[in-house]
Specification:
This protein is an alpha+beta fold. 64% of the residues lie in helices and 8% in strands. The strands form 3 sheets. A 4-stranded antiparallel β-sheet has the order 3-4-2-5. A two-stranded parallel sheet has the order 1-6. Strands 7-8 form a two-stranded antiparallel sheet. The longest helix has 33 residues, at 274-306.
Length: 361
């Protein structure tokens, strides 16, 4: 298995095997566009389940319960504040969290006493927090400000490092693609969006950016002197970069997703850890879609944007004209694609071409 994977990676790196990812970029753009439209439809239609940190409200946590269930809490809330719709979560094996809207001091005391009686615990062990709507709105505003500042810094850094603003624009659009899809999943499932979720969103942006920059760095290496040759176009050299980093992207994603999957399914659904659930879903979805975007969105989009540059367009036209005239000696793979790289894996000129040692005295 490992040997086959290594052989596959070697073939991708040498150009013996290639996948026309850039050539089929319209297909990937359509897929991404559909996913984004669906995400937007869910987001605006269903909306996000914002936690009290953003909307404001009251929160009770009842610990040390022998059989934690939502039913007793629902009955207490319906008796004391019937107009409220509580959000009840089971935390771990012995705790229940009840979240409500704004309540008065008297309602707080009555609810605490009711929860203590319903669950058979000491009222003094029940924790209570109340967050005002002003503070919640400030948290949401700061989260958006942090996101905008992050994207601006990314644009500036990538533009300076690669000296190509179109490459930076492609990276930013790929990040927005990942974020929007992840937020759409949150809206679809109805997971509560908390500050931990926002941390998860920013974390996946960093992960996706890292994966994209690795591919872009290979694109830069392959296309650094693309005008000095007449065999391959800019898009073909960029496609080679994707293929050469494909195995690394898959391996990195699998290794990163394994612990996140454990946190999501074991820590959240089995142990019932609320905060873990908030952040791990963002990490799981974001890492998976980030790997997809770095391969099928970022580089194809970068090629689509840069293909309009005069020098790249002129070079592409020249290469295609030479092929049409039969003056280009490019090789073709078994799949009928242009083979970028050595004509044969490990090709060399033999022992006669190797440097000879000088005779020893």
């Amino acid at each position: 298995m490992a040997s086959n994977l290594a052989q596959w990676g070697n073939k991708l790196h040498s150009g013996e095997k290639t996948y026309p990812i850039v050539k089929q970029r319209k297909r990937w753009f359509i897929v991404s566009a559909i996913l984004m439209l669906v995400s937007l439809g869910i987001l605006f239609g269903k909306g996000l389940n914002l936690g009290i940190d953003f909307t404001g409200g009251a929160q009770f946590i009842v610990p040390e319960i022998e059989s934690p269930e939502a039913g007793p809490a629902e009955e207490v809330v319906s008796e004391i504040v019937p107009a409220q719709e509580p959000r009840i979560s089971i935390l771990g094996d012995d705790s229940v969290r009840i979240q409500l809207g704004e309540i008065t001091s008297q309602e707080q005391q009555d609810l605490a006493a009711g929860f203590a009686d319903a669950y058979g615990v000491d009222e003094s062990t029940i924790s209570f927090d109340q967050i005002g709507p002003t503070w919640g709105a400030a948290v949401g505003k700061q989260a958006l400000q942090g996101l905008v500042i992050f994207l601006l810094l990314v644009f500036v850094v990538i533009s300076l490092y690669f000296r190509a603003w179109r490459m930076a624009a492609a990276a930013i659009l790929a990040l927005i693609h990942d974020l929007l899809f992840t937020v759409g999943i949150y809206a679809l499932i109805g997971f509560e969006v908390t500050p931990a979720s926002v941390i998860g969103f920013l974390t996946i942006l960093g992960y996706s950016l890292y994966d994209t920059v690795v591919v872009f760095d290979k694109v830069k290496e392959n296309t650094q002197h693309f005008e000095a040759q007449r065999r391959f176009t800019y898009s073909e050299l960029a496609n080679l970069a994707i293929n050469q980093t494909l195995v690394r992207s898959i391996n990195t994603s699998v290794v990163a997703l394994l612990p996140v999957t454990s946190i999501l399914f074991i820590g959240s659904f089995i142990l019932g850890a609320g905060t873990l659930k908030d952040i791990s879903l963002a990490l799981f979805v974001g890492m998976a879609v980030g790997t997809y975007s770095s391969i099928f969105v970022a580089t194809p989009l970068e090629v689509a944007l840069r293909s309009r540059e005069e020098r790249i367009a002129k070079h592409t036209a020249m290469v295609l004209e030479m092929r049409a005239q039969g003056t280009s000696d490019v090789a073709v793979t078994d799949d009928g694609e242009i083979r970028v790289g050595a004509l044969k894996a490990g090709e060399h000129q033999g022992q006669s071409a190797q440097p000879r040692r000088k005779g020893r005295k």
